[in-house]
Design brief:
Blueprint lengths: L11 H14 L12 H8 L3 H13 L3 E4 L3 E4 L8 E3 L4 E3 L3 H8 L20 H14 L13 H13 L9 E4 L1 H13 L5 E6 L3 H10 L2 E8 L2 E2 L1 H11 L3 E4 L13 H14 L2 E5 L13 H5 L4 E6 L11 E4 L2 H15 L4 H11 L4 H25 L3 E2 L8 E5 L6 H10 L5 E2 L12 E5 L6 H8 L5
Parallel strand pairs: 6-7, 6-9, 9-10, 10-11
Antiparallel strand pairs: 1-2, 3-4, 5-12, 7-8, 11-12, 13-14, 14-16, 15-16
C-alpha cells in the first residue's frame, strides 16, 4: 500500500486517488479485489473519514472502483468498466451519483447552507394543511389513475399563471409532473440519446448534470456570467460541438444566483434558431423573483423552448408537483413518455397543490417569502464578504449565493471539515460539467444564519 505525505502541497484526497490508480494500472490491485473499508483506510493512514469518502467517490467516478451495496468498494475491471460518459476533461462512470448521495443530499446534518430547499417554516405549510382538510372533508373519489396529463383544474391554473407571464398556451400544452426533476428527466429522455452533444450551464443544475451523464450525453458547458452567459464562448462552443439541446436556467440560477438579461435571452434564441437546437428552460424559481421579467418561453412562445416550473420550492418539496409546457405536438410525446415510465402522477398531491395555490393567503405568502429572501441575501452577502469571500454576483433575490475564498482551493475538502461540525456545504464540483475540484461553494441564504454556520464562516476570516 502507498504512503501519504501530510506535508505535501498535493491534497490528501489527490494522493489517495493517485495511489490507488497507480496500483490498479500496474496490476498491484487486480479487478475484483476489495478495497480497504473507508474507516479502515482512514484509521490506518491517520486521515479524515470524509477525505477517504471523497477519494473513493472520485475513484468510482473515474471507473477504477465500483461500489456494492452493503459490501464496500471493489476494483473495477478496466477493460469492462461499463459505459462511460465524456464530461470534458475526463470520463466518468454512472457511479458518479455517489457525489450526490454522499455529500449533496446528506440530510443527517442539521445545518444546511449548501442544500437546495427552503426551511420548513419558510414554506406554505398552513396553506397545505388547509388544502388537505378541504380535500378530506370533500371526500373526493380517488379511484383509477387519473388524467395522464395531470389534474385539469391545476393545469388550467398553470395556463393562466403563465399567461400572466406572457406565455400564451392552452391547458392541453401543460403536463404535470412529479416535481421539476421528472419534467427535466422527461425532456432529456425525449431529446437526448447516448453520444449526443448537450449544452448545459457551467456551473449548472447538479441533478440535471447527473441525469444527463446517466443517459450518455456529451456535456458541453455554457459559461455563466453575472448578467447571464459568456456569449462569445457560448457561440464558439455551439459552432464547435453543434449541440442538440441546451438545458439552461436563466432566472435566479442554481448555483450562481445570476439572472440573464433580456439581451442575453434574445441572443440565446437567435443562436438556437441559427444552429438549430432546442432549449429547455428551467424556471423553477420564477415565484421567488421580485421583478416581472421575460423568459425564453415568453420570447419564443414555445416554438423552440420547453418550459419547466415547480411548486415544490414554495409550497413544500414533499408534495413533488411540477409542470412542463411545450408545443402541442411535443407535449403529446412527453405525455406518452410519462405514461411509459410511470403511468400518471399523483392526483392527490396535485389537488393538494391546487388547493394551496387558490388559498386566499397564497399571494401574501409569496410576497413575504420574497422579502425574507431579499433580507437574507443582503445579510449573508455582507457576512461572506467580511469573512474574505468573493461573490460571483449579488442577486439580492432568490435562494443562492456563489462564493469562493482565497484560502480554499478545493471546496470539497472544506465541505468535509464543515460536515465534522454538523454543517452541510455545497462544494463547487457538484455543479461542474467535468466534476473537477473547484474552489467555489453554493450558499443557500435561508439556511445560513444558524450559529454553527456563522461560527464556521468566522474561522475562515482572513487576517
Amino acid at each position: 500500500m502507498f504512503v501519504l505525505d501530510p506535508k505535501s502541497t498535493v491534497p490528501l484526497v489527490t494522493q489517495i486517488v493517485v495511489g490507488f490508480r497507480q496500483m490498479v494500472d500496474d496490476g498491484s490491485l487486480r479487478a475484483g479485489t476489495k478495497a480497504p473499508s473507508i474507516r479502515q483506510f482512514a484509521h490506518a493512514h491517520g486521515v479524515s473519514v470524509y477525505t477517504v469518502v471523497d477519494a473513493y467517490d472520485r475513484l468510482v467516478a473515474l471507473g477504477y472502483f465500483q461500489s456494492q451495496a452493503h459490501s464496500g468498494f471493489f476494483v473495477r475491471s478496466r477493460g469492462t468498466a461499463g459505459t462511460t460518459v465524456s464530461g470534458g476533461a475526463g470520463s466518468y462512470s454512472f457511479d458518479s451519483m455517489w457525489y450526490l448521495s454522499r455529500i449533496f443530499e446528506n440530510r443527517k446534518l442539521h445545518n444546511k447552507p449548501g442544500c437546495g430547499w427552503l426551511p420548513g417554516d419558510w414554506l406554505f405549510g398552513d396553506g397545505l394543511k388547509r388544502s388537505q382538510r378541504a380535500l378530506l372533508a370533500a371526500d373526493v373519489e380517488m379511484g383509477g389513475y387519473g388524467d395522464p396529463r395531470g389534474f385539469l383544474p391545476l393545469r388550467q391554473l398553470v395556463r393562466d399563471n403563465l399567461a400572466a407571464r406572457e406565455i400564451v398556451l392552452g391547458a392541453d400544452q401543460v403536463l404535470l409532473t412529479q416535481g421539476s426533476s421528472q419534467a427535466m428527466d422527461l425532456a432529456a429522455r425525449n431529446l437526448v440519446r447516448a453520444g449526443d452533444t448537450v449544452l448545459v450551464d457551467e456551473p449548472g443544475y447538479a441533478n440535471l448534470l447527473f441525469s444527463l451523464r446517466f443517459l450518455g450525453a456529451k456535456l458541453i458547458g455554457a459559461p455563466r456570467s453575472p448578467s447571464g452567459y459568456d456569449l462569445d464562448v457560448l457561440e464558439q462552443r455551439i459552432i464547435a460541438h453543434r449541440p442538440k439541446v441546451f438545458f439552461t436556467q436563466p432566472r435566479l440560477q442554481s448555483p450562481t444566483g445570476s439572472t440573464a438579461s433580456l439581451s442575453h435571452l434574445h441572443r440565446v434564441l437567435q443562436l438556437a434558431e441559427k444552429y438549430d437546437f432546442v432549449v429547455v428552460e428551467n424556471d423553477i424559481y420564477a415565484d421567488l423573483d421580485p421583478e416581472s421579467r421575460p423568459s425564453l418561453a415568453s420570447l419564443d412562445q414555445l416554438k423552440r423552448v420547453i418550459y419547466v416550473g415547480s411548486f415544490s420550492k414554495t409550497i413544500s418539496p414533499n408534495i413533488r408537483v411540477g409542470f412542463m409546457a411545450a408545443s402541442a405536438s411535443l407535449l403529446e410525446e412527453l405525455t406518452r413518455l410519462k405514461m411509459f415510465s410511470g403511468l400518471t402522477s399523483s392526483e392527490w398531491t396535485e389537488r393538494l397543490a391546487y388547493g394551496a395555490l387558490i388559498d386566499g393567503r397564497w399571494r401574501k405568502h409569496i410576497k413575504s417569502l420574497k422579502d425574507r429572501l431579499a433580507q437574507a441575501q443582503q445579510l449573508l452577502s455582507a457576512q461572506l464578504l467580511a469573512a474574505g469571500f468573493a461573490l460571483f454576483t449579488e442577486p439580492k433575490a432568490g435562494m443562492f449565493l456563489w462564493a469562493c475564498h482565497p484560502a480554499v482551493h478545493n471546496a470539497a475538502e472544506l465541505a468535509y471539515k464543515a460536515a465534522e461540525q454538523d454543517v452541510l456545504l455545497g462544494p463547487g464540483h457538484l455543479f461542474s460539467v467535468d466534476l473537477e475540484p473547484s474552489p467555489w461553494l453554493r450558499f443557500n441564504v435561508a439556511w445560513s444564519q444558524d450559529e454553527a454556520v456563522q461560527r464556521f464562516l468566522a474561522e475562515l476570516k482572513t487576517p
